[in-house]
Amino acid sequence: MLNAAAVILCLLAIAHSVLGERYIITRLLRRDEVPKLFGSNVFTKQTLRYCWHLTTVLGLGMALLLVQIENGQGTPAVVQTLAVTLLAASVLAIVVTRARHLSWVGFVMAGVICIRYAGMPTL
Prior knowledge:
Blueprint: H1 2-29, H2 42-70, H3 76-97, H4 103-118
Helix pairs in contact: 1-2, 1-4, 3-4
């Protein structure tokens, strides 16, 4: 069951990295209007790209944790923490983008899978 949540997270992470690089980061970094730090805007641009792809790495790390837990290497408390984190990410995406950024769908699906696996009470 957690493997399905891991697959969802991997798909979200890959889509985030590929689509974000193509449609957001590359276009954003072509601009010269970003703040200058340490005398130029190079550090700012590197930091923006790093932070963008860090999200991808963290998503893949969460997916790996779910696979490990599914294979008996973890505790229900870890799954509960992941469930709350995923659902918080979905709420953030819904509120900030008014549900236009569809990542919330994947976060809700993965979060609900984690809730069911951990035996957490639902509404």
